[in-house]
Amino acid sequence: KLLRKNSFLCDPDEQTREKIGYPTQAQLRQNFGIRSAIEGTEECKSRKGYERTFWPIRERYWLNQIKNFSQRMLFICGLEHVKSFSSLLKQHGYTVSILGKKFDLF
Fold first, then answer.
1. Is-above-0.70 flag for pTM?
2. Rounded to an integer, what distance in angstroms lies between the CA atom of residue 84 and that of residue 82?
3. Rounded distance between C-alpha atoms, residue 83 and residue 4, angstroms
């Protein structure tokens, strides 16, 4: 039996971010400086903390992107989103199976 494999990105693009009230990359750079993109810096830590306050908006956007998808799916998200996004999915009637909470690239 062949499996149907469709894929699409659920993360909002810059225009959509602005529309839904989620900070754009340009806004984040402007507010926190270019060093905020460098892992391990204080600017990065501050930026991530600020951006985390908007994650409910981002996760609701993801939910809206998959609402009309009636087949089983694999949704890949960052580790820090697993708990909150799976909870949101369950609240909306989805059955959630978490395949892994950690992976090593090398």
1. yes
2. 6
3. 28
Which residue is listed with tokens 């999915």? 89
Collapsing DSSP to helix, strand or coil, 12 comes out as: coil
| Torsional class of 68: left (φ above 0), alpha (ψ -120 to 50), beta (otherwise) | alpha
* Residues 67, 75: Cα–Cα separation, whole Å: 13
Helix axes 25-32, 42-52, angle to 10 degrees: 130
- Burial label, 9 (beta-carbon count in 10 A; 0-12, 13-18, 19+): exposed
Residue type, 15: Q
Residue 61 pLDDT > 80:
yes
